[in-house]
Amino acid sequence: MFFWWLVVGVLVASIALLTLLLAPLPTFLASGAVQLINAIQRPLWVVLSLVSWVLVDAALEVRKHSGVSDSHYAERAGLPMMTHNIKWRAERNFYLAGFTWTLLLIVLRCHYLARSKLELIAENRRMRAERQNQ
């Protein structure tokens, strides 16, 4: 259960980071956002690997509960509802982990693009300054 709260926290944090990267900010604020993500890039890869592990676990859990038929429940009355709830939770966890994993990959890719954009802007300014000095 603790892992799912971590996944939700990572999901909220990655949404905030993606918003920070995609918002049309002035260059000095955008460079601050890129530097912030540069500082946490290695932990992001660790979190991505943990979310990958949770995603595989959730996929195996969904697969385990999807093959159960109704003929097994003839002897107990409340068992179908309990199994339905377990299957629903497994599917929810799978979709939650999958969305978090995808969003983390998008954050890392947008970080790379924003960093290269800032490098190109800095190179452009340097070349303009050299041209004006000539």
TrEMBL record:
<keyword id="KW-1133">Transmembrane helix</keyword>
<comment type="similarity">
    <text>Belongs to the BCAP29/BCAP31 family.</text>
</comment>
<dbReference type="InterPro" id="IPR040463">
    <property type="entry name" value="BAP29/BAP31_N"/>
</dbReference>
<feature type="domain" description="BAP29/BAP31 transmembrane">
    <location>
        <begin position="3"/>
        <end position="125"/>
    </location>
</feature>
<dbReference type="GO" id="GO:0070973">
    <property type="term" value="P:protein localization to endoplasmic reticulum exit site"/>
</dbReference>
<dbReference type="Pfam" id="PF05529">
    <property type="entry name" value="Bap31"/>
</dbReference>
<dbReference type="GO" id="GO:0005789">
    <property type="term" value="C:endoplasmic reticulum membrane"/>
</dbReference>
<protein>
    <recommendedName>
        <fullName>Endoplasmic reticulum transmembrane protein</fullName>
    </recommendedName>
</protein>
<dbReference type="GO" id="GO:0006888">
    <property type="term" value="P:endoplasmic reticulum to Golgi vesicle-mediated transport"/>
</dbReference>
<dbReference type="InterPro" id="IPR008417">
    <property type="entry name" value="BAP29/BAP31"/>
</dbReference>
<feature type="transmembrane region" description="Helical">
    <location>
        <begin position="94"/>
        <end position="114"/>
    </location>
</feature>
<keyword id="KW-0472">Membrane</keyword>
<comment type="function">
    <text>May play a role in anterograde transport of membrane proteins from the endoplasmic reticulum to the Golgi.</text>
</comment>
<keyword id="KW-0653">Protein transport</keyword>
<dbReference type="GO" id="GO:0006886">
    <property type="term" value="P:intracellular protein transport"/>
</dbReference>
<keyword id="KW-0813">Transport</keyword>
<keyword id="KW-0256">Endoplasmic reticulum</keyword>
<keyword id="KW-0812">Transmembrane</keyword>
<keyword id="KW-0931">ER-Golgi transport</keyword>
<feature type="transmembrane region" description="Helical">
    <location>
        <begin position="42"/>
        <end position="60"/>
    </location>
</feature>
